[in-house]
Amino acid sequence: MKFQLNLVKSILAVAGVAAVSAVSAAPASAFSFGNIVGGDTPGDAYQNSFTFDVIDQGASVLFNISNSGNNAASEMFISQVLFDDNGYLSNAVANVGNIGTVAFSGGASDAQLPQGGNGFTTDYSFWSDNAGGNKWGIQGGETLGLSFTGNYANVVSALNTGALKLGLHVQALPKGASDSYISTISAANTEATPEPLTMLAAGAAVGFGTMFKKQRARAQKAE
Question: Domain limits of the chain?
Fold first, then answer.
């Protein structure tokens, strides 16, 4: 009887975690940046340090732009983020869930991406609040959140075809150099990014499953 009561309690606990996870989990996709062909080369070795996720938030999408850092260029930081969106985005909001000492300003703009060209026409531009310094830029281990009204599926599809592109300007590279990058075009860039509570629910389910087996075994020995 005690085993059955504990089993019911455990099932309710798993159900509770799963319910919270179902509400909190959101589709997300991960993308990368590449060098600009024919552009400057000081930052070519660091392109893999810069990535972004796109998260579905219902009527809006959240872009998390991250700098993972690199020991060979420990001072480098993202000072500007630009969008060539072709009408997929609207109602820009900066600094949504930033990680680190990050603060950007901006919005609709025709500012040119350094080393521009390559068919990149700016519709939105965001820049760190201390122009020319790295304090509020996206340094190693930091992330900037930019939210827009937009349809998640359409945005992801446009990123994979190049109809929607992101550009970065990175400063404080070795020898005081700077460089720019553009989001890469390939469906292979997209991957599922689990939300924290989804992973929590999965872990809880495994943990409770193990507990069920142990409780059942003890109950059978006691019979």
Answer: 1-25+194-223, 29-193
Higher model confidence: residue 118 or residue 87?
87
- From 2.60.40, 2.60.120, 1.10.599, 1.10.287, which CATH number describes the 29-193 domain? 2.60.40
Query: Is residue 1 scored above 60 in pLDDT?
Result: no
Q: Is 122 helix (H, G, I), strand (E, B) or coil?
A: coil
| Residue 186 main-chain phi, psi, to 5 deg | -175, 130
Quote the radius of gyration of the chain (alpha carbons, Å): 22
In the β-sheet with 165-173, what is the strand arrangement from edge to edge? 90-94, 142-149, 60-67, 50-56, 28-35, 177-183, 165-173, 77-84, 124-128, 104-108
- Give residues with Cβ within 8 angstroms of 9, minimum separation 6: none
Q: What is the pLDDT of residues 39-86, one digit of tens each?
A: 889 999 999 999 999 999 999 999 999 999 999 999 999 999 999 999
* Among candidate residues 4, 13, 3, the one with its CA nearest the CA of residue 205: 13
pTM of this structure: 0.75
